Every structure is written in structure tokens, then in C-alpha cells.
Amino acid sequence: MRLGRFGTEKTVAVFLAGLFILAAVPGYAQESKGFPNRPVSFVIPWPPGTSADLAFRALGKEAEKYLGQPVVAVNKTGGGGTIGVTAIATAKPDGYTVGHCPGAGPVFILPFTEKLPYHPMKDFRFIMQFVDLNPGVVVKADSPFKTFKSLITYARENPKKVTYGTNAPNSMANIIIEEIARKEGVQFTHIPFKGATEYQAALLGGHLSFCAGDFQTALVDSGQTRILLQFGEKRSEDYPQVPVLKDLGYEISCPMFLAIWGPKGMPDDVVRKLESSFTEAAKEPSFLKTMKELHFTMLYRNSRQLEDYVTTNFDTYEKLLKKMGIAK
């Protein structure tokens, strides 16, 4: 998944300082007696070789130093991420199977649009988050739209003439853009694709006005595309000139992240051991170097912070999807 580069040394220092403070909290690093005494399986709901897959494998490798056992990556793909998420939810709650429950569809959208074998707020324990994703709106470099506001102005004067691509109907990017359109009183024409590679190719071919979602930094940095807006909580340090949603007055959250969850019912001491181990792993220089190479931005949340963040956004998206007539 795409996001801005890791950032400056100052950002790294602040990030690490936060981790050390959290690790110093009494009981935070308390170890579980006897856990783990065999390898820990880590479920990744995306195919091998993707940036998210590489990030989790790198984190798992570092976590082995603190767990004292191998962390074995297991890719369970399909269903827009829900197959892997289901495997985590239905695993034995002994701490030996954890994994990535991505935000976006599997956690904040699909539970309201179709029947799933898990409930995001009832079937998991939250362990930690280490990356915040920052997708956005991208146009071709020669586009007449220099700002997102100019795009909105044109769309208001030319209903349905502005076309945009995302990776799927009712994807988070699609929902965010349609909510913006509702607030602005404009009408876009949505064209769904199978993934970011396809819609970026269509954009470069002149078949779309803009695309929304993940984007390739290489295309931006080479001057082939231009970012008008990003969806993250704060501006990217790579592209500080690009506004985020709240800068333009859009109070819409985009909860997309890389985080670790486990099945409900895991003992508290096991959760603490996992949280402590993966937190320590996230401080390792070699891991931070990998994150920088993958162009991910670090944003740490501990178990409680992640639970609060997911709970808030789950409620927010339930209300939003109902208002939009998407929730069943």
C-alpha cells in the first residue's frame, strides 16, 4: 500500500520517544509465563511481495528477538482481505495466531454491506499499530486542475463530466469521494477498477479526470502525476504542500493502517507479551530502514489506543454508510 516516505530524523526521534515512554509504563512489558514456547503464526491478508506483506515480514523478523520464537508469515488472500481476517478471528485464542486486520473494507465497510463470519468489535483483541496510510486524489501532470478546489469548481459547473477511478465500488476511497461530492453539491462519474495499477494506467492514458486511493510515488516524483489531496490525519512530509481532508474542511476519517490483532479471548499477559515484543521490534533500526524504503509513514498506537481508534471509526462509518444508503 502506498504512502509518503518515512520522514525526517526528527520524526523518527519523536516516534521512538513515544515508544520508549509507553514501554516504561509499569506492567507494559510484563512477560507471560511460558509464552511463547513454539512459533507464532502471523496471518497476512495480502499476497506475498506486496509492500504491506514485506512490512509485516520485516516486523516479524525483528519481533523474534523479543519473543524468542520464530514468527511465521502465512498469506491468506481473497475476499478483499476478509479471508485472512476471518482466519485471525476464528483462531485459537492462545496467542500463537495473530495477524493484520486492515482498516478500510474488512473492518469499516464490509461488515455493514454483507454478512461476514466475524464482527470487528466483538471478535478481536487489539495489539498494536505501527503505520498510518495516506492515500489521496491524483491527476495527470498536464491536468488543468492544479488544486482540489479547482476540480470541485469545474465539477459544480459540469455535472457528471468529471470521471474518477478507484479500486472498487464502495471502497473507502469511493465512499470518501462521494461524501465530498455530497457536501459540495457536485456529481462525479465513478469508474471502478480491479486495483491501483489499472486506474493509474487509465489516468495516464487520459481516460480519467482523477483517481482516488493508493498511488505510486515514482509517478509523482517523476512528474507524470500530481497529488491534489491526501486522506491521512496529517500532511505527508514528502508532499507538505498537499492538503489533507481536514485542511479543506472535510471532517471525514480515513482509517487505513498497518496493525496487529489477535482473536478475542487471548489472556491479558499474552497480549502484553505480544504488544511489548512487536513494539520493541518497531524500534529496530533495520526495521525502520525497511519502512523508509517501502515509503511508509510510522504512526504508533498501543493496544488501548488502537482499540479506541477502531471503535470510534467503526461507529462513524456505521452512521456514514447508513446515511449514504450503503449499509444493509
Question: Can you describe this structure?
Answer:
The protein has 328 residues and is an alpha/beta fold. 40% of the residues lie in helices and 17% in strands. The protein has eleven helices and eleven strands. Helix 2 links the parallel strand 1 and strand 2 (71-75). Helix 2 crosses helix 9 and helix 2 runs antiparallel to helix 10 (285-293).
Keywords:
globular, D-Maltodextrin-Binding Protein, domain 2, disordered N terminus, 11 helices, 328 residues
Helix content: 25-40%
CATH homologous superfamily assignment of the largest domain: Bordetella uptake gene, domain 1
- Major sheet size, sense and barrel closure: 5 strands, mixed
Report the radius of gyration as a whole number of Å. Answer: 20 Å
Total strand count, please? 11
CATH class of the largest domain: Alpha Beta
What is the subunit organization of this protein? Answer: single chain
Q: What is the typical, i.e. mean, pLDDT?
A: 90
Number of separate domains: 2
Structural class: alpha/beta
User: What's the architecture of the largest domain in CATH terms?
Assistant: 3-Layer(aba) Sandwich
- Which shape, going by the Cα principal axes? globular
Order of helix and strand elements from N to C terminus: HEHEHEHEEHEHEHEHEEHHEH
What do we call the CATH topology of the largest domain?
A: D-Maltodextrin-Binding Protein, domain 2
Contiguous helical run count: 11
The spatial strand order of the largest sheet comes to 7-6-8-5-9
Task: Tell me the β content.
Answer: 15-25%
**N/C terminus separation:** 28 Å
User: Which spans have pLDDT < 50 for at least 5 consecutive residues?
Assistant: 1-8, 21-32
